[in-house]
Amino acid sequence: MVEIRFDMSEARGDIDDKAARATLEKILTDHNFNDGWLNVVIIGDTLTKNLHGQYLNDPHTTDVLSFEFDINRDIGYMEGEVYANVEQVRRQSEDYQTSPEKELMRVICHGVLHLVGYADGAVEQREIMREKEDYYLKNY
Q: What is the pLDDT of residues 60-106, one digit of tens each?
């Protein structure tokens, strides 16, 4: 099983740890990842802007960033991190008229879906990504 760790030392986010872990485990097992580790780090705007600028040449804030360290789909092995920006999540939850907790879980799922192989660059890819997010969030 992929070891999932939550780090809220930079920022606090309201999240049901047990339900979040079960949701992420479902994504990982559905995509045949059964070994390695995944860190989910809750951060704020400042660190998000720094990471986004440093690694993606975009100094603006975003809701989630995913980083692959070692992913081998053939053997189901993953080492990766998802950085969720709780400040952006709170803004988005107002825009989308949902709870901050639900929006935080959505962006975390979005980040993990990137790690397991989904893209969202084209309209069709975004639609598939949204369908997957909705599917995994229905039981959160």
A: 999 999 999 999 999 999 999 999 999 999 999 999 999 999 999 99
* Residue 95 neighbours by CB distance under 10 Å: 8
Nearest to 111 by CA among 44, 60, 64: 64
Q: In terms of DSSP H, where are the helices of the chain? A: 17-30, 45-56, 86-95, 100-115, 123-137
**pLDDT at site 9:** 76
Distance spanning both ends of the chain, measured CA to CA: 20
- CB–CB of 44/91 below 8 Å? no
Spatial neighbors of 22 by CB under 8 A, at least 6 apart, are 139
pTM exceeding 0.90: yes
Q: Which two tokens mark 40?
A: 């989910």
- Diameter of the chain by CA atoms? 41
Q: Which two tokens stand for residue 73?
A: 């789909």
How many Å apart are CA 54 and CA 39, to the nearest integer? 19
For residue 60 the two structure tokens come to 């603006």
AA letter at 105: M
Q: Return d(Cα 96, Cα 92) in angstroms, integer.
A: 6
